[in-house]
């Protein structure tokens, strides 16, 4: 085991200011820190005052309550906080304006994504089976940044056409096995570039037959014929079936028919519900460890099967799930971790962050209207269950590649 870091050595169960470590005390003593200013309220204090407003204490100080037990995990957590702190306080970059608000390096990210859609270096040959994921994330990122991705339509069509197998579905590359994950990425990429020419690439009949072969007697979906069955399959299949308007009746030779199922969605929400763990999160399949990406897949699947306010509370223990999801956000970093006792990671800004709109939809009821009395309106989820501003600050301050090449990273040092 490595020697404890100087921050870990000072760990003790303390509350607030009375027994802080030297690092915490030094941070708290900084005149730039104020415990009364929220990020949402950062404004210019006075037109004639040249000094910037204070940053929220949450993102400029270490947690006031610490556990005295030192472990490998706690040391890694301390190291991560040490690496993130200069970026969170604005000392590791020049992204923040005088009000302490960081900016998005949009143009650099656009160029980075466009470059990844070109020729890749030879070291990427090991990622050949993941090609649909590479162009999907790039096209999706460009679309979110406001770029017109229709210009990639012809190139994309010629790229994905050989990936489609006669038996249905898309593989990661020519001659490879069809897989639900790569099919999901290929179909959504075609949807992003749009146009009848793109949609007509998809053989919907063979897609239906292939999906029927993946449907299992217990209600779930395999990722590939003979492959693993997990909640990714439930989500990917639901998206594909819904987006392409695939007929839901099962073919007579589907494995699911042996259990009496007649519908592609038969038994699916019940199977998803069995993936919820004792922690409150969702695992890949029943009996395994909860993971943020699987929670997103479960919620996404249930939201597709029916209105979120009906399916999510029916098949998942929502209070326990909310508790687990809220626990994924770390302070002072502001980012999300994917599992209990793990570090923050930029990718979970998508997987865990994407859970909250679905949770909010389930709480608000049909068409966004809460079923609560008008005199007792619900508190917006993004204001009460997770710190939206903390997440934004983590993404912009800690995850942006500050070099000219652009792009986003896991965390500082990665």
TrEMBL record:
UniProt remark on cofactor binding: Binds 1 zinc ion per subunit.
Any GO molecular function: zinc ion binding
A Gene Ontology cellular-component term: protein farnesyltransferase complex
InterPro entries assigned: FTB, PGGT1B-like, Prenyltrans, Terpenoid_cyclase/PrenylTrfase
Coiled coil: none
GO biological-process terms attached to the record: prenylation
Entry keywords, A to Z: Metal-binding, Prenyltransferase, Repeat, Transferase, Zinc
Domain of life: Eukaryota
Xref: Pfam families: Prenyltrans
Residue ranges occupied by any Prenyltransferase alpha-alpha toroid domain in the UniProt entry: 104-414
Main EC class the enzyme belongs to: transferase
Named cofactor requirement(s): Zn(2+)
E.C. numbers: 2.5.1.58
Catalytic activities: L-cysteinyl-[protein] + (2E,6E)-farnesyl diphosphate = S-(2E,6E)-farnesyl-L-cysteinyl-[protein] + diphosphate
Quaternary structure, from the entry: Heterodimer of an alpha and a beta subunit.
Entry function: Catalyzes the transfer of a farnesyl moiety from farnesyl diphosphate to a cysteine at the fourth position from the C-terminus of several proteins. The beta subunit is responsible for peptide-binding.
Family according to the record: Belongs to the protein prenyltransferase subunit beta family.
Protein name: Protein farnesyltransferase subunit beta
Organism whose genome encodes this protein: Conoideocrella luteorostrata
Lineage start: Eukaryota, Fungi, Dikarya, Ascomycota, Pezizomycotina
């Amino acid at each position: 085991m490595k020697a404890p870091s100087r921050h870990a050595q000072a760990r003790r169960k303390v509350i607030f200011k009375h027994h802080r470590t030297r690092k915490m005390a030094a941070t708290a003593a900084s005149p730039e820190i104020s415990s009364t200013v929220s990020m949402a309220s950062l404004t210019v204090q006075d037109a004639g005052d040249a000094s910037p407003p204070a940053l929220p204490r949450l993102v400029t100080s270490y947690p006031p309550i610490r556990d005295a037990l030192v472990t490998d995990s706690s040391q890694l957590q301390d190291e991560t906080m040490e690496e993130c702190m200069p970026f969170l306080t604005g000392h590791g970059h020049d992204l923040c304006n005088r009000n302490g608000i960081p900016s998005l390096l949009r143009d650099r990210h656009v160029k980075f994504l466009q470059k990844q859609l070109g020729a890749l270096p030879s070291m990427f040959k090991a990622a050949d089976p993941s090609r649909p994921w590479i162009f999907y994330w790039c096209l999706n990122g460009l679309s979110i940044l406001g770029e017109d991705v229709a210009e990639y339509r012809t190139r994309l069509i010629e790229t994905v056409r050989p990936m489609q197998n006669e038996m249905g579905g898309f593989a990661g590359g020519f001659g490879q096995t069809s897989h639900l994950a790569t099919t999901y990425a290929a179909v959504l990429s075609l949807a992003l570039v749009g146009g009848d020419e793109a949609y007509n690439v998809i053989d919907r009949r063979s897609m239906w037959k292939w999906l029927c072969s993946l449907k299992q007697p217990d209600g779930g979906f395999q990722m590939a014929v003979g492959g693993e069955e997990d909640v990714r399959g439930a989500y990917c299949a639901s998206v594909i079936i819904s987006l392409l308007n695939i007929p839901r009746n099962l073919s007579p030779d589907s494995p699911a028919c042996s259990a009496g199922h007649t519908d592609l969605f038969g038994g699916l929400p019940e199977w998803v519900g069995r993936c919820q763990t004792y922690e409150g999160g969702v695992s890949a399949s029943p009996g395994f460890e909860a993971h943020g990406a699987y929670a997103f897949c479960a919620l996404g699947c249930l939201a597709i099967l029916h209105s979120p306010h009906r399916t999510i509370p029916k098949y998942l223990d929502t209070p326990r799930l909310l508790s687990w999801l809220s626990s994924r956000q770390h302070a002072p970093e502001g980012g999300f971790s994917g599992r209990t006792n793990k570090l923050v990671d930029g990718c979970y800004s998508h997987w865990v962050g994407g859970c909250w709109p679905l949770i909010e939809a389930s709480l608000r009821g049909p068409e966004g209207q809460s079923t609560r009395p008008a005199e007792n309106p619900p508190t917006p989820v993004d204001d009460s269950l997770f710190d939206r501003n903390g997440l934004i600050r983590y993404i912009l301050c800690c995850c942006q590649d500050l070099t000219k090449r652009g792009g986003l990273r896991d965390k500082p040092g990665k």
